[in-house]
Amino acid sequence: MDGHPLNSFRKGIAIAGLRGGSGKTLISLGLLAAFVRRGLSIAPFKKGPDYIDPAWLSLAAGRECHNLDTYLLDERTVISSYLSRNNECTYALVEGNRGLFDGFDIEGTYSFASLAKVLGIPVVIVVDSAKSSRTAAALVRGCQVFDPDLAVRGVILNRVAGERHRSVAAGAIEKYCGIPVLGAVSRIPGLDLSERHLGLFPVQEHPDPRRSIDMVVSAMESAVDIDGIIALMDRYEYPTRSVEAGALSMERHEPETSASAPAVGVIRDSAFNFYYPENLSALTGHGARLVFIDALKDKALPDVGALYIGGGFPETHARALADNESLRNDIRAAVERGLPVYAECGGLEYLSETLEVEGTRYPMAGVFPLRFSLSKKPQGHGYTAFTVDADNPYFPRGTAVRGHEFRYSRLTESPAGIRTAFRMDRGTGLAGGRDGIMHKNVLATFCHTHALGANVAWPGNLVALARERKK
Question: Do 238 and 375 reside in the same domain of the chain?
């Protein structure tokens, strides 16, 4: 971990929506960039399991975005992370996911509303007001009544058609809800923030993400009361949080020279970019030296003692991955010689025999005798939980772990007798209630995990294996 001390408090704002696709990411990007223009130091956060939005938020804020989720992490760790990440920042913006009250069950467990209350920060609701006006007040008032303990302190209207539309919707909200409308945003001409099946187009694949953020912040400056939002953060009374800095500590080895530190390869490029910062920090925290690899361009596997392959969109880069035959062959040969590899989701697909996209089968690394095909519908989506019920190099047998899965790929061929280490207690996994396929020192899973979650032991064990191979 970064080892920074905790702030005793942090002035924050929660940007919420009534549903997914309401524009809260657009508003969050604009606000972050506007704060930066004013010289404010602001730490970006994203609620829930997500990789794409945090990359956009990081770009807008000029500093790394971190995820906060009370399903993946216990409450104490969530608060500690909120107070310690980007410790030099006085302010924080936390973007929600889905609808404000949407959670694990009918009680809203793990919802964004529950997170905002845990953090003790005020909520600004982004309301998509397209084709409605006064009804927006009913929706906001419903949120106030639904949970009177939630500090809903303002509204930003999105997709406003014109001044008359704005005046009716804003006037109704301020009259019937008693809170200010802090902005009204119209459609931004020429803005390219197109979406793909998991949300926004990834930053790594966007032709000009910086230009898109500049367009958004220019619109925000004229349509949103930026100073009013800063004032809201400044005047809100924050509950005192007493959290020991040790809540985020994890095992550290004595500092090693770059020559003696075990090298752990990380495939990170436009095909594989789903990495929580904490997962990479966990590897370095256990003493690893990270070696980043581009599976699209690098022709040979570097001299590494272990390999971590995260998720991403291998299906949109299937041809380029297939064309890099020399790297695929290097990885397969290294695995057969005992290279420790931990892979998640897209990384699992890359280690398979083939990946079929639009009728064409592309060869992958061929470590596992599996074939996948891109589907038009989600094949696994949401929170997961699994129990480790077989011996493996990365998790102690008998431990229970929480994670999440996002995938559209479908398993089309799998021989009988493949070895797996996980029993799925929630979610889809690989197939048949199982996940965590194994071969030699490789373990690959469709479940993404967060290094600060309970029983997430793989980072330390991967580094230990790399260190052992170095001897």
Answer: no
Residue 6 lies in a domain: no
240 with 269, same domain: the answer is: no
Give residue 288's domain range.
Answer: 252-470
Angle made by CA atoms 343, 385, 315, in degrees to the nearest 5: 40
CA pair distance 283, 118, nearest whole angstrom: 29
Q: Which of 213, 245, 277 is the last residue of a domain?
A: 245
Catalytic residue among 89, 143, 345, 447: 345
- Kindly report the backbone phi and psi dihedral angles of residue 444, in degrees, each rounded to the nearest multiple of 5, phi listed first: -130, 140
Burial of 300 (0-12, 13-18, 19+ CB in 10 A): exposed
Q: Does residue 110 sit in the same domain as residue 218?
A: yes
Q: How far is CA 147 from CA 12, 15, 117, 144, 152, in A?
A: 20, 17, 11, 6, 9
Predicted pLDDT of residue 434: 97
Specify the amino acid at residue 208: D
- Structure confidence by residue, pLDDT tens digits, 186-220: 988 777 666 655 457 788 777 788 999 999 999 99
Is residue 149 domain-shared with residue 195, that is, in the same domain?
yes
The secondary structure element, H or E, covering residue 400 is strand 400-407
Q: Is 345 a catalytic residue?
A: yes
For residues 366 and 370, give the distance between their C-alpha atoms in angstroms, rounded to a whole number: 8
* Backbone φ, ψ for residue 269 (5° rounding): -160, -165
Q: Report strand pairing: 263-267 vs 11-17.
A: unpaired
Q: Is residue 2 part of a domain?
A: no
Tens digit of pLDDT for each residue in 55-72? 999 999 999 999 999 999
> Which residues, in sequence order, are CB contacts of 468 under 8 Å at separation 6+?
none
Beta-strand pair 434-439/442-445: antiparallel
Rounded Cα distance, 124 and 420, in Å:
45
Give the chain's end-to-end CA distance (angstroms, integer).
26
How many domains does the structure of the chain reveal?
2
Here the tokens at position 58 are 């990081």
Enclosing H/E stretch for 220:
helix 209-223
In the numeric block, which tokens belong to residue 178? 């008693």
In degrees, rounded to 5, the angle at the alpha carbon of residue 393 between the alpha carbons of residues 362 and 311 is 35
Confidence of residue 248 (pLDDT cuts 50, 70, 90): low
Going by the DSSP 8-state scheme, the letter that residue 103 receives in this structure is: -
The residue assigned the tokens 């807008």 is 60
Hey, what are 13's tokens? 């704002």
